[in-house]
Amino acid sequence: MKIGIVCYPTFGGSGVVATELGLELSKRGHEIHFITYSQPVRLELISHNVHYHEVNVPEYPLFHYQPYELALSSKLVDMVKLHQIDILHVHYAIPHAYAAYMAKKMLQEEGIYVPIVTTLHGTDITLVGSHPFYKPAVTFSINKSDAVTAVSQSLKDDTLRLFDIKNDIYVVPNFIDLEKHNGQGFTDCQRGMMAKDDEKIITHISNLRPVKRVQDVISVFYSIQKEMPAKLMFIGEGPEKEKVELRCQELGILDKVVFFGKSNEIDKILCFSDLFLLPSQTESFGLAALEAMASGVPVISSNTGGIPEVNVHGMSGFLSNVGDVDDMTKNALYILSDENRLKMFKANAIKQSKKFDLHTIVPQYEAIYEDTLAKCLVI
Ligand code: GMT
């Protein structure tokens, strides 16, 4: 199949999933066309059947807001025609499903039919999409998609609760390339560079938006390091970063916190981590937690959204109510204070992550593409 993939090309989970999906589909013989405003951050290898087409939005002084959706839908029309793309898979309802629908209608005028698969990732539903300013357009785009998927049952339930949806929504969970996370991609896990032998390494990865509750990460780490030698690895950039740095300074723990900024090498950081913290206000899935688990890192998370579908309480880590930093600390210390217990949780984390093996999940998307194309041929 020739598949056009539209996504946010940034460090966010939806862009990562879309990129990894495209790369895996290309290995399975499909021709993949990424159509985005910049090259997706994890798209390192351009192979003969992976293509990248940039959406350009010319600046014009009259416009307060540059019309990205318009440029995207025009680019989709051009690329579908030029490369005879069979199907468009758009990640995020806003504005990708909307732009794809416009492209589909324009193409129909020329007798070309291209179905749209929309994958909902979370923010497009729970945080932004349900805002009254966007809701009619988001509802319309979801209902007009030829197939809709959500990355967790929780996100599907939220979508059905918040919008008037006429379509079926398939749950296709996010996935992980276990080979990338088993430490075999590189020879040396350089724990010694980051911490002393007796120090436990706690890690947090996010785009440091308020929804990630990064102050809770600091509170939990502060309590952990009072009980045992520990270091905190903080990966990501975002609006909360300065506040986090200030708080670490106030608490006198700056020397125990390593700020990595945006990193493309999270597998190298996760390989020496002992515990992962994800205290988010909400997460449709929590891809960062899955990546941690696949690297053998147990997860202390909040019990919200789709996280319980990923992190199993008492097995791969623990779940606490949002904001309950005391419970998170208690659970973290329980895991970290006993080497055998830590080993067991690490092994369980890997075991749980295997349920999300890309070799199991990616064929589910292929089946959806095939069904959607078959249905469209009938119409
Ligand atoms: O929240 C983020 O880190 C970014 C965001 C995105 O849109 O890229 O992530 C969302 O999609 C991810 C991939 O499906 C999920 O793993 C995240 O849980 C989800 N974020 C939220 O729901 C807040």
UniProtKB/TrEMBL annotation:
<dbReference type="GO" id="GO:0071793">
    <property type="term" value="P:bacillithiol biosynthetic process"/>
</dbReference>
<dbReference type="InterPro" id="IPR001296">
    <property type="entry name" value="Glyco_trans_1"/>
</dbReference>
<dbReference type="GO" id="GO:0016757">
    <property type="term" value="F:glycosyltransferase activity"/>
</dbReference>
<feature type="domain" description="Glycosyl transferase family 1">
    <location>
        <begin position="196"/>
        <end position="351"/>
    </location>
</feature>
<dbReference type="Pfam" id="PF13439">
    <property type="entry name" value="Glyco_transf_4"/>
</dbReference>
<dbReference type="InterPro" id="IPR050194">
    <property type="entry name" value="Glycosyltransferase_grp1"/>
</dbReference>
<dbReference type="Pfam" id="PF00534">
    <property type="entry name" value="Glycos_transf_1"/>
</dbReference>
<dbReference type="InterPro" id="IPR023881">
    <property type="entry name" value="Thiol_BshA"/>
</dbReference>
<dbReference type="InterPro" id="IPR028098">
    <property type="entry name" value="Glyco_trans_4-like_N"/>
</dbReference>
<feature type="domain" description="Glycosyltransferase subfamily 4-like N-terminal">
    <location>
        <begin position="11"/>
        <end position="180"/>
    </location>
</feature>
<protein>
    <submittedName>
        <fullName>N-acetyl-alpha-D-glucosaminyl L-malate synthase BshA</fullName>
    </submittedName>
</protein>
